[in-house]
Amino acid sequence: MLVEVRGDVPGRCVGDTEVGHDVPGVDLLRVADPADEVVRGVVQATRDVLIEPNVFFGPGVAIEDGAHIMANCHMVGARIRSGARVGPFARLRPGADIGPAVHIGNFVEVKNARLEAGAKANHLAYIGDGRVGAGANVGAGTIFCNYDGVEKHFTDVGAGAFVGSNSSLVAPVKIGDGAYIGSGSVITKNVEPDALAIERSEQEQRPGWAAKFRTMMGRRKKPR
């Protein structure tokens, strides 16, 4: 059962000792630092939820059993399901549905997207208008390219898929279950289940080039 907890009184902390004044039971919310003002706004929560300092809750946020909200997160219109971990410094926008045991890490933004059980996006990613299947991994720097300047489009990442760092998934696009996306790829076509998709220029190496370049530039450099 979700219970509404308010922390919108300036300077007030919602912690083990105070929550009993508002709702039945004193184990609803646990806070990492009871001296800090933790909850700003209104949040619906079940039991055994841990919230670290400086978290903002806008309208429509719901948190289920055993979730852990780390410091400095901003959430509006999002649902965090049982056992999920969010933050620090994460942003959940309206329509974010964070599934059981999902990890959303630092500087990850989620909007109108569902992450299914056990999925991970641990660093520096934008997940907008899409789905990330159970157990999938979204690497650092990954972007769901959902907007073409006129309309929003959907990105579907299948269960167990692995999206390498610094990848751009240009919607509409579907990544099949268990597929791998090579780091640095710009994916514009659907990827079959268990396939490897890689899109980047071939690396070129020119032996001795750097030394020659430094010598040439040294000749041009004017003495101070």
Account of the 3D structure:
This protein has 224 residues and is mainly β. The chain has one domain: 3 Solenoid (UDP N-Acetylglucosamine Acyltransferase, domain 1). 7% of the residues lie in helices and 37% in strands. It contains two helices and 23 strands. It has helices at residues 16-19, 209-220; strands spanning 3-6, 29-31, 39-45, 49-51, 55-57, 62-63, 68-69, 74-75, 79-80, 85-86, 91-92, 97-98, 103-115, 120-132, 137-138, 143-145, 155-157, 162-163, 168-170, 173-175, 180-181, 186-187, 196-197. The strands form three sheets. The protein has an eight-stranded parallel barrel with strand order 3-5-8-11-13-12-9-6. A four-stranded parallel β-sheet has the order 15-18-21-23, with no helix packed on it. Strands 16-19-22 form a three-stranded parallel β-sheet, with no helix packed on it. The longest helix has 12 residues, at 209-220. The radius of gyration is 22 Å and the shape is globular.
Compact summary:
This protein has 224 residues and is mostly beta strands. Helix content is 7%, strand content 37%.
The N- to C-terminal Cα distance equals 73 Å
Oligomer: single chain
Total number of helices: 2
Low-confidence stretches: 6-28
Biggest sheet details? 8 strands, parallel, barrel
Please trace the helix and strand order, writing H or E for each element. EHEEEEEEEEEEEEEEEEEEEEEEH
Fourth CATH level, the homologous superfamily: Hexapeptide repeat proteins
Helix content: under 10%
From the 3D structure, determine the CATH topology: UDP N-Acetylglucosamine Acyltransferase, domain 1
Residue-averaged pLDDT, rounded? 85
Which CATH-level-2 architecture? 3 Solenoid
Q: Rg, please?
A: 22 Å
Summed up, the domain count is 1
Specify the CATH class.
Mainly Beta
Instruction: Indicate the overall shape.
Output: globular
What structural class should be given to the helix and strand makeup? mainly beta
Strand fraction equals 35-45%
Query: Widest sheet: strand order?
Result: 3-5-8-11-13-12-9-6
Q: Using DSSP, what is the number of strands?
A: 23
